[in-house]
Fold FAD-binding PCMH-type domain-containing protein.
Amino acid sequence: MHTTILDDLRRALGPEALLTDPADCARYLTDWTGQFRGTALAVVRPASTEAVAAVVKLCAASGVAITPQGGNTGVAGGGVPLGNRPHILLSLDRMKAIRRIDAAARSVTVEAGCVLQQLQEAIAPEGLIFPLMFGARGSCTIGGNLSTNAGGSNVLRYGNTRALCLGIEAVMADGSVVSDLSGLRKDNTGYDLRDLMIGAEGTLGIITAACLRLYPAPVIRATAFLALPDVASALSVLNRLQDASGGLVEAFEYMPAPMMRQICAHHGKRPPMAEPPETGILLELASTRGDDAAPDPEGTPRLQALVTEVLAGLMEEGLVADAVICASEAQRNALWQLREGAAEAIYALKGSYMFDLSLPLAAVADFVAQTDAESRALGFEVYTVAHLGDGNLHYTLAAGAGRDWAALPHTAQIDRILDRVAALGGSFSAEHGIGQAKLPYMPRYRSKARLAAMRAIKGALDPDDLFNPGKTIP
Ligand SMILES: Cc1cc2nc3c(=O)[nH]c(=O)nc-3n(C[C@H](O)[C@H](O)[C@H](O)COP(=O)(O)OP(=O)(O)OC[C@H]3O[C@@H](n4cnc5c(N)ncnc54)[C@H](O)[C@@H]3O)c2cc1C
């Protein structure tokens, strides 16, 4: 039967669309962290929406499951086949076209396999940005970003991927195509399939294209690294900067000393302050207004002068201990390279567990103080990097050099932390999704009613469990 489906796929798509040699398939069948491996009859690489629909129909007819994959940068194991059922891995990596840039409407229609950075470079000459920003942007794809509802460093200002999407085109389990690419800002015609597909991690259909919202490119930025006395001061600092600037804060990223040291050691870089502060914050504001870029009498662009003035006031009040304000694009890039190098530096820690937590903003400071102290007392090292303005903590417990992870009470401490997050009304998966990694937590922390509704949606849209079986829904 497997030879038949492969022959059928070859006939329908052309031989160049199928990879079956294990050496060619290997990089698609292991995730980038090396934690998740799967098997597939073939890696299938359709080049059009019609070809995706043909693949879905052929697989549905022979009961072969489909795992969609974009850039394979996900961290929850969602893009790698799971279980023993015959699978194909459907890679969108040949569907990269930018179909239409509508500069006047500030939207772009793009195929799902387009790499995020390529989209950003293509629209830059129009003076526009697609503001999704994180370290994997050179490899992750729009389809993967939508399917994980990716977040990143600029959510504070622009929202997550869901907020950036005007409509999608997707292939459903029967091979039909739903298309909603007209860029409408308003369309209340019943259930919103776009919102169902976003964050579904490839369990409800294959996203083949999307119409995305664009924003005017900033003409001036103010970027700084701050030392705060403690995490409790952070919210006041953020709110004061927002109020003074009219909401121009784009990033407010927590990079405490242990994390900064680990990033610098891993990438061979220097920290922005000789002695990394316990509560370090990467701050960025951006403005599209020409007068914010105009120099003040000292020659400093107005936005940067404003940020300097606000920070000086916050220092006098004791809410900021120290600040390094970037004086050049090179300094800004150096700071962002440190921030975007965090994920690799964390995954390089042998014997560790990374949480992707979200908490109500008011609960963050006490959570960090309590959990840091408790975890260290148990013998763990703690590495945190956080989209603090969104209450999203990438919180890592590690054994540290020379220590044995297995000898530490990691299962109990992971459970204790997750229970604490739940008690505070937080989430155990802020932006990375469930995939296979977080599956066991779903029945523990999500209600029976919610899981039943998810199963009903899955059953209605994908009755034969064709798409990404075993993922996301326990
Ligand atoms: C260095 C680094 C930094 C990162 N930082 C962040 C961060 O700050 N914020 C954040 O949110 N994430 C972050 N990530 C995680 C990851 O980059 C995102 O989840 C990204 O959105 C995944 O895109 P992808 O194309 O690689 O998807 P993949 O990994 O290929 O797939 C992810 C999921 O989407 C499904 N999928 C992929 N394409 C489609 C499609 N066309 N149709 C249907 N389903 C599909 C897959 O089946 C899988 O379940 C980071 C990763 C790395 C390596």
